[in-house]
Amino acid sequence: MNPHLDKLQTYPFEKLRQLFAGVTPNAAYSPISLGMGEPKHPTPPFIQQALAENLAGLANYPTTLGTEALRGAIAGWLERRYGIPPLNPATQVLPVNGSREALFSLAQAVIDPAAKSIVVSPNPFYQIYEGAAYLAGAEPYFVNSDPARNFACDYDSVPASVWERVQLLYLCSPGNPAGAVLTLTDWENLFALSERHGFIIASDECYSEIYHGDEPPLGALQAAHILGLATVERPYARLVVFSSLSKRSNVPGMRSGFVAGDAEVLKKFLMYRTYHGSAMSLPVQAASIAAWNDETHVESNREQYRAKFAAVTPLIQQVLDVALPDAGFYLWADVSRTGLSDTEFARRLYAEYNVTVLPGSFLAREAHGVNPGQNRIRMALVAETGEGREAAQRIVQFCNTLTK
């Protein structure tokens, strides 16, 4: 067996299952889960129709590169969304079966396992980043998020000796779980580090279309364009971005996303994926084209999330330290004032009020003497507004019993 498998930690939701083992939730309450970030809004009918109308494509092997029409639709969306120069669909865009599998497999393609490499990751983080690093033969290095910096990571704190060994930097903007968005200054500093040390930046942007302010979140390709890195001899050098239709279009089961950016990196990644056997089926490609070409359903989706956050956040703020995030569909709340740890809070809330939340320590690792997820909980506001409000009211009741 691959010895690197022994380095993998239990996934957060399995940890949650173990935490709840032996607990019988209060039967007076119907179950409400805020634990998993799985979109619950209905899939738009026009996407379902596009999928159904192209089922004949199941009779054909799809190519790893995907159809020209799909790559063109993705490139067009990137141009419209971020105001960047048109990407070359043939060399700078690659369809993938959801951003998760591509974020993992990129590390397998770009890491030199003999180089004792480092993969830098935010902390808390999407656990795929850590597993990808280990199974590529590298070591993860975690940079803690800082509440005083709107949960941004302080990359200036990373020693030069670490940067010299870095081959891949994972970023998540808007972030999971805190929803923080990287600024143009953040990007400028990171691009400079990438230029100096030669590492690849993998920007995970799957939450980019769920935001709560007037301005959409800044994207990596957009930042590179503003900073003049899109028109140089090697456009978007060492930069690749990942996005997905799962959250944007409420099709998590369709497994459809893309990676875009540096043509040289994508050329090697395409070769890897050709052997990996990860081509997207033609019906899914057709449905994806329909989704990327429409913004009306995205705007409606965003408004539904805004309504939920407007209804739920003020209630939670009565009893926990929490603020409206820049973007994403999570609330990242500090439970310290309840006197309970994040795991105790989650277990008792489940037992007494049948509401599931995810302990923040499950989403992070102890690094530099601290687990930045400790004493926090992540709440995914993916259910409909009424259910979310009911969950918030139960949390308020629970916290009030603690103070009494």
UniProtKB/TrEMBL annotation:
Residues 32-391 form the Aminotransferase class I/classII large domain. This is N-succinyldiaminopimelate aminotransferase. Its EC number is 2.6.1.17. GO terms for biological process: lysine biosynthetic process via diaminopimelate. InterPro entries: Aminotransferase_I/II_large, DapC_beta/gammaproteobac, LL-DAP_aminotransferase, PyrdxlP-dep_Trfase, PyrdxlP-dep_Trfase_major, PyrdxlP-dep_Trfase_small. Keywords: Aminotransferase, Transferase. It comes from the Bacteria. GO terms for molecular function: pyridoxal phosphate binding; succinyldiaminopimelate transaminase activity. It comes from Pseudoduganella violacea. Its cofactor is pyridoxal 5'-phosphate. Signal peptide: none annotated.
